[in-house]
Amino acid sequence: TSRIQFCTTVKAQVRFPCGEMTRSAPLGYGHPMKVATDTPDLLILEDRPLLVAGILLVVLLGMVGIGIAQIAAGETVSGLAFGLLGGGFAFGGILAFVRRNQLVLDRAGGQVLMRRRSLLGYSERRFELAHLDKAVVQTSRSGDSDTHRMALVFGRGAQVGTHPFTLVYTSGRGARRGADTVNAWLERHGPRAVAS
């Protein structure tokens, strides 16, 4: 099984769409995007931020543990601050950043599926494979640093437009490698390849 590896940096930025929120992952936001299946009839890409989930879980447990210890020692105010504020911040990070994303290009069924699963629930979007033109990389610029995400461009049909694969922007070359994988598959096995 081949893997598309995100670049891990010391302070990799993670950005939400439109730049309304910015977070830094202190140990990097370098998680692998896995090519789960690559056949003439099926391409499946999976994006699982296991590293970020692990870091945030450790922070959450640490903050709650410190809070409990402070309360046991009679420092109720500082204990509540660590437990509620620190733990709440870490839990909010888990809700915001920890999502399993899966992209399915199904040539036999003629479909493109975008699936997202998080603690908040599951969602799935369906598109026509024949309407998919290409994958592109969207870049968000903030100061002297750039972050990226992969998106799919649909030129026809009811859902015409550019649809991002992940909700957040991340540093590294993972988005470019993912887009290159999708475009290479479309050239080999997609509607254009079949038509030619």
Walkthrough of the structure:
The chain is built from 4 helices and 12 strands; from the N terminus they run βββββααβββββββαα. It has 196 residues and is an alpha+beta fold. The relative contact order is 0.17. Strand 4 and strand 5 (42-47) form a beta hairpin. The model is unreliable at 1-31 (pLDDT under 50). Strands 1-4-5-6-7-8 form a 6-stranded antiparallel β-sheet, with helices on one face. It has a 3-stranded antiparallel β-sheet with strand order 3-2-12, with no helix packed on it. Strands 9-10-11 form a 3-stranded antiparallel β-sheet.
Would you spell out the secondary-structure blueprint of this structure?
Elements: E1 3-4, E2 12-15, E3 22-25, E4 33-39, E5 42-47, H1 50-72, H2 76-97, E6 100-106, E7 111-118, E8 121-128, E9 132-142, E10 145-154, E11 161-164, E12 169-170, H3 174-189, H4 191-195
Antiparallel strand pairs: 1-4, 2-3, 2-12, 4-5, 5-6, 6-7, 7-8, 9-10, 10-11
Helix pairs in contact: 1-2
Q: How much is the radius of gyration in Å?
A: 20 Å
What is the approximate shape? elongated
Derived structural class: alpha+beta
* Unreliable sequence segments: 1-31
Task: Name some characteristics of this structure.
single chain; 196 residues; alpha+beta; 6-stranded antiparallel beta sheet; 4 helices; 34% helix; elongated
